[in-house]
Amino acid sequence: MEAQEQGKKGPFGKKELKLLYATYSEADLYNSGTFKPLTRNLTTGAKLGLGHHCQQCNGKMTQSCYENLHYAYCATWVNRMLDGKPVRRRCGERFALRSDGCGRHPRVQGYNEPLYRAAEGYDVALSEFDDPDPDNSKGEPEDDEEDWEAEHIELARLTEEEIAKNGFLPADFHNSYWQALRQEQAFAKSKKRRAVETGSEDVGENPTTNGRGQANVVANGKAGAGKKTQNRAITFADQPHEKHGRGASTYAGTVTADKPKRSYAPKGSKPKAPMEVPRRPAAGSNDENANNEGKGKGKTRVGTWWSKKKNGNGGASE
Fold first, then answer.
1. What is the share, in percent, of the chain residues with pLDDT greater than 90?
2. What is the pLDDT of residues 60-103, one digit of tens each?
3. Among 263, 38, 60, which Cα is nearest to 153's?
4. What is the pLDDT of residue 42?
5. Which residues 6+ apart lie within 8 Å of 287 measured at CB?
6. What angle do CA 94, 99, 100 make, to 5 degrees?
7. What is the pLDDT of residue 3?
8. What pLDDT, in 10s, does the model give residues 108-149?
9. What is the per-residue burial (b if ≥16 Cβ within 10 Å, else e) of 83-95?
10. Residue, of 267 and 276, whose pLDDT is higher
11. Are the CB atoms for 260 and 248 separated by under 8 Å?
12. 70-79, 247-256, 266-275: the lowest-pLDDT one
């Protein structure tokens, strides 16, 4: 860090990079003479399934893209299983130096930070990449290799589409991809956790309606189409089950309630009043409710046709 503060340009070049990458695996793929620029993981040897451009050279990937630190391989130490036993290995995932890291390990997480300083020309010692805990006590668990490979294949495809469409690749393209992926994964975990918590709450839910009837179940329950069934503890004073003190009883069972039928009336329409059913007064009676002749105290309960008939306009009289 002292060299960085003084602005000293450092000697971290091709030789130092080869020495660093030799520590990624016993196969020493980078220095083997069989290294391919489309190698996705320097530790495992996994390769990208599609061609890829260097976003800084804006051309085909070559080994010089790594020598010039346009791209690098993640130097973070992790635990990996080998023959059923955990061993210390570097992460080895490829990432663009313009991004914030390999997707798993950000640039601020120790081991990758010296690579960024080296890319900027500052002095970097190889000892900064040493494993401080070779006994695995602080090793990070390895992610699913197949899932990780699928993400890199998708990123390579999107990169090629972006270059073909616009002729260049934005500097924050890779960083934006991994950031969006992390947000998506966090959202999925949160959604799954809420679903588990909600399911637990529903199973434990056992409220009482305090005698308010099935309408309360319909109003407050989670209704489905047609009928719905819910397990509730419903207290009824008149149920002859499980007598408790003071004459109360509790019925714990299944209540089935009809869902209110849907109305197909137009929106904003007012409900129609019930049709009046005219009734004719009995012969010789003084039915005030029927003929309104009881000294003006009765209520008109007959239809228009009966009034006309009474006034002599409707045919035979009583």
1. 8
2. 888 999 999 988 998 888 887 777 777 888 888 888 887 655 65
3. 38
4. 92
5. 281, 294, 298
6. 95
7. 43
8. 556 788 888 888 888 889 989 988 777 765 555 554 444 555
9. eeeeeebbbbbbb
10. 267
11. no
12. 247-256
Q: Which two tokens stand for residue 267?
A: 């929106």
User: CA angle at residue 281 from 276 to 284, to 5 degrees?
Assistant: 175
**Distance of CA 73 to CAs 90, 96, 175, 304, Å?**
9, 9, 15, 96
Tell whether the model's pLDDT for residue 250 goes beyond 60: no
Under 8 Å between Cβ of 98 and 56: yes
Provide the token pair at 269.
Answer: 């329409």
Q: Which residue has the tokens 């791209």?
A: 71
pLDDT higher for 219 or 30?
A: 30
Instruction: Decide if 306 contacts 278 (C-beta within 8 A).
Output: yes
Tokens of 79: 């635990």
Give the closest residue to 75 by CA, choosing from 11, 123, 118: 118
C-alpha–C-alpha distance, residues 314 and 302, integer Å: 14
Query: Which tokens is 238 given?
Result: 């008149």
| DSSP character string of the chain | -HHHHHTPBP--SHHHHHHHHTTS-TT-GGGSS---TTBSBTTT--B-SS--EETTTTEE--THHHHTTSEEE---EEEEEETTEEEEEE--BEEETTSSBSSSSBTTSSTTHHHHHHHTTB---GGGGS-S-TTSTTPPPPPPHHHHHHHHHHHHHHHHHHHHHHSS--TTHHHHHHHHHHHHHHHHHHHHHHHHHHHHHHHH-----TT--HHHHHHHS---SSEEEEEEEEE-TT--SSB-GGG-BEEEEEEEEEPPPPP-SPTTPPPPPPPP---PPPTT---HHHHS-STT-S---S-HHHHHHHTT-SS---
